[in-house]
Design brief:
There is one protein chain. This protein has a 7-stranded mixed beta sheet with strand order 2-1-3-4-7-6-5, with helices on both faces. The protein has a 6-stranded mixed beta sheet with strand order 8-9-10-11-13-12, sandwiched between helices. It has 13 helices and 13 strands. It is globular and about 65 Å long. Helix content is 42%, strand content 16%. The longest helix has 19 residues. With 384 residues, the chain is an alpha/beta fold. α3 links the parallel β3 and β4. It has 3 domains: 156 residues, Rossmann fold (3-Layer(aba) Sandwich), CATH 3.40.50; 109 residues, no CATH class; 94 residues, Diaminopimelate Epimerase, Chain A, domain 1 (Roll). InterPro entries: DHH_sf, Nucleotide_metab_enz. This is Oligoribonuclease NrnB or cAMP/cGMP phosphodiesterase, DHH superfamily. It comes from Methylobacterium gossipiicola.
Length: 384
C-alpha cells in the first residue's frame, strides 16, 4: 500500500519520519514548517485521495492540530464513508500537543483513554481505518516507534542506534533536562538545524534519506558515549562518509571538493528546478548558498539563462547570465543588480513548489490579451 507522511519540519518531525521509514516504505514525505501551512497541504491531499481508487495510507505526525487539521480529519472520515470498503484509505494521526486535544474537543470529538495506557487519548471517528492518538508523555518520534504496529503489522524491534535516536529526541523535545540523554539530544538538535536544508534540500530524492542517515549515525555516536562537543566535531566526517556512499558509482564526482560542492553538481542535474513558460528555472525553499551554487551550474550548463528561488516566506531571488534578473524582480516589487536581484510574492508566502509556480507564472509571464475581449471588438466591421 502506498504510504504518504506529513510531518513537522523540526527534529521531532524528522525523527518521526525516520522511524516510520525504517518499518514501512514511504512514497512521499511532506515537511510542514508552519502550522498555518497544514490546512493547504491536507486540502491538497484530501482532493488527491478522493480521486485515487486504490487505497493508500496517510500518516500525520507532530503537526499540532489546529482547527483546519481537525476539519480535515472529519472530512477524511466523510470521504471514506462514501467509498467501497475495499477502497477506503487509512489515516493515522500521531501527535503529542495538549492543544490538539482542545481543538478536537471544539469540534465535538471527545477523547477516550487507552485501556493499556491511560496517558494516551484516542479519538473515535467511527471508522476502523482512522486512528487518532494524542500522547502528551511521548514526543512524536517515540510515539511513532511505540505505535509502529499501526502502519507496519510485521514491525520488529529497532536496532540500538535507532533506539538511541528515539531517547535523545524524546528528552530534548519534551525538554527533560533531568534525563542523561538531554545533553546529547540538545546537540543533536543543533546539528539537525545546521544541516537540514543547506546540503540536500527538501524536494530532492535524497533529502529525507540524507537527514535520516545523519541523525541515526549521530545517535550511534551518542550511544557510544560521545559528548556534545565530540558529536559536533565529528559531523563533517559523518557527512563525508554518507556522501561517499551516495556517490560511490558517480563517475563525475570529485572527492577533492567540499561536500556542498560535490552535492551541488548532483542537485544541478535534478528536478529541483522546474522550467516556467519563458524558460526561467524556478526552485522552492532552497538555502541561499545552495541556490547560488546550483543556479550557477545550471546556467553554465546552458539549461537556463535565468533562475529563480522562492522561499516559504515569499522572498524571491533572481539570478541570470543575460541581465534579465532585475527585469524579473521588478515585476514583484523588487530590485537589485542586472544579474542578481530580489522580490516578494504579492501573497506574502508559498507552501510548496507547485504553489510557488502557480503564483509566479501569471505575473512573470502574463498571458497575451485576448483581442475578442476588447470593448471595440464588437465594432469590427460596423459601418456607421
Amino acid at each position: 500500500m502506498t504510504v504518504t507522511q506529513i510531518t513537522h519540519h523540526d527534529l521531532d518531525g524528522y525523527g518521526a519520519s525516520t522511524i516510520v521509514g525504517r518499518f514501512v516504505p514511504v512514497s512521499r514525505i511532506i515537511h510542514v514548517p508552519r502550522y498555518s501551512d497544514v490546512g493547504p497541504v491536507v486540502e491538497v491531499e484530501l482532493k488527491r485521495l478522493g480521486r485515487t481508487r486504490k487505497p493508500e495510507t496517510l500518516i500525520l505526525t507532530d503537526l499540532g492540530l489546529e482547527p483546519v487539521a481537525v476539519t480535515f480529519i472529519r472530512n477524511f472520515a466523510t470521504m471514506n464513508r462514501g467509498r467501497a470498503v475495499e477502497e477506503r484509505h487509512r489515516l493515522i494521526v500521531l501527535d503529542h500537543h495538549a492543544s490538539s486535544i482542545d481543538r478536537l474537543r471544539e469540534q465535538n470529538l471527545e477523547p477516550v483513554a487507552e485501556a493499556d495506557d491511560p496517558s494516551v487519548s484516542r479519538f473515535d471517528l467511527d471508522d476502523p481505518a482512522i486512528t487518532v492518538l494524542i500522547d502528551e508523555g511521548r514526543c512524536a518520534t517515540k510515539l511513532a516507534y511505540h505505535r509502529r504496529a499501526l502502519y507496519a503489522s510485521d514491525a520488529t524491534e529497532g536496532d540500538a542506534d535507532l533506539l538511541a535516536l528515539v531517547e535523545a529526541v524524546d528528552a530534548v523535545d519534551l525538554w527533560r533536562k533531568d534525563r542523561p540523554t538531554f545533553a546529547g539530544g540538545h546537540a543533536l538538535d543543533e546539528v539537525f538545524w545546521d544541516n537540514v536544508s543547506n546540503l540536500v534540500p527538501i524536494g530532492h530524492a535524497w533529502h529525507d534519506r540524507f537527514v535520516s542517515d545523519l541523525l541515526v549515525a549521530l545517535a550511534g555516536r551518542l550511544r557510544e558515549g560521545a559528548s556534545p562537543a565530540e558529536l559536533e566535531a565529528g559531523v563533517g566526517g559523518i557527512r563525508t562518509a554518507i556522501v561517499n556512499r551516495y556517490l560511490a558509482d558517480d563517475a563525475t564526482d570529485d572527492p577533492r571538493l567540499t561536500t556542498r560542492m560535490r552535492l551541488a553538481r548532483v542537485l544541478a542535474r535534478s528536478d529541483l528546478f522546474q522550467p516556467l513558460s519563458d524558460g526561467t528555472y524556478l526552485s522552492f525553499g532552497l538555502d541561499s548558498g545552495t541556490f547560488q551554487r546550483v543556479s550557477d551550474l545550471i546556467m553554465d550548463a546552458g539549461k537556463a539563462k535565468r533562475v529563480l528561488n522562492v522561499q516559504r516566506t515569499g522572498n524571491m531571488s533572481f539570478r541570470s547570465n543575460d541581465e534579465t534578473a532585475l527585469e524579473g524582480a521588478r515585476k514583484f516589487r523588487g530590485g537589485g543588480h542586472k544579474d542578481a536581484a530580489g522580490g516578494k510574492l504579492p501573497t506574502g508566502s508559498a507552501f510548496s513548489l507547485a504553489d510557488a509556480i502557480a503564483q509566479v507564472e501569471p505575473i512573470l509571464n502574463p498571458p497575451a490579451p485576448d483581442p475578442s475581449s476588447s470593448p471595440f471588438a464588437a465594432l469590427k466591421g460596423w459601418k456607421g
